[in-house]
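Researcher: I'm preparing a figure for a lab meeting and need a structural model of a single chain. I don't have an experimental structure, so a prediction will have to do for now. The sequence is pasted below. Please return the structure as tokens so I can convert it later.
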Amino acid sequence: MDISSVVKIYDGIICEFLLELTLFAIIFYHNFRRRDHFVLRLILSLVLLLGIGFGVSFLYYYIGDEFWGRILIYTFLFFVYSFLSLIPFKENIVSILFSLGLAYASQNIMYKTWLLIYTAGESINLYDIWGGNFSIFYRLFYTLFLIAFVVGSYFAFLRKLTKHIKSQQFNQKMLWITLFCLAATVILCSLQDVYFAKLSSVRENHFEDTSLYVLRESGNLLSILSCLLVLYLGFKSIDANQLSQEVEYLKETIRQSEKQYEISKDTIEMINVKCHDIKYRINSLAQESQITPEALKSLESYVNIYDSKFETGNQVLNTLLREKSLFCEQNQITFSCLADATDFDFMKAGDLYCLFGNLIDNALEAVKKIEEVEKRVISLSVRKKGGFIIIEEENYYVGDLSFEDGLPVTTKEDKNYHGFGMRSLRLIAREYGGELTSSAKDQVYKLSILLPLK
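Model: Understood. Here is the structure written out token by token.
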């Protein structure tokens, strides 16, 4: 074994590929949630990646010139990169694979575009003037092309593609479509690179026969088109998934309206009962021809139901909280709220209603199951701190509560229907650049939403 050849493979092929893939991965990863000690975790993952890459260089030395060997090596590096990405980023493997697949397709488009241009220059012997400095000039122009392509492609179309990734709930259908297209791309590119390298003379991609140039350029163009197809399918998958989420969001809004109707109906019935009690009490006092302090206090407690208990600075939230508090009073639930919502103008009224409506309804559903009246308590606070709006909610619950992907798993049979409330909360939070976290300890459930002030 020639160690110098292995080092040359590691430096000129493996590290170069990993660097290019990383440049595009940064574009697709930059909105991902980061774990604690992100920088240290990122350094660790990069060190492991480079270490594994060095080991792969030995494998490349033996089988890198074979068609099947090339496929095996690049597929292995792709999956290693994917799993190491889980160290610094708090995302599931489906999101990582999908995003890295799009990054790999972008990297391949860049490399094949370069080969398309470079091979055209070889066909007219353009690079003969470089002479003994060929490697230096090649590396210089390739590096400049790489930087220009990454920056240009980001502003041209990748930015539009990646801005929706942060709020997506990726599904297996999206993943399989992307991986299938990428597998076809890897096979096609490996086939071209291996066999055209064997047909080259003087240096790689320099051919004596003009027909070989035509075949090579056709292969480069086909690879570019196949990778563009991957990006297109990725974009359409995100677009379709976002549309599906919006449909579910609308359905949830309708369900919320139906719930609100039931609550409003109960509230009206309660108000009618209170009005009847007031009228009866007034008639009784009139017949007695006396109004004692105790009687006045009793009347005041009845009339207080009309008073607004909440002045948050936002009319939508005021109305919602007033209705929910009436429902709580009817069901012996203590609802405490300290909210400053004066800076919620950046959020659509429908989103604001659905956010707090889902949040409170989930809490109501939990505390209604509690037999001890003193534990039927819901606490809600909204405050501003350090350029952020912090929404916090706490309530007691009974039974066991399990979590999946950071969200509590519903115990109801229709998990898709009943689990959407929490998913919609996270979806709305992320839509406005925020994040949702939840936890449970000692039969107390806590939910926090952090939103950047606009």
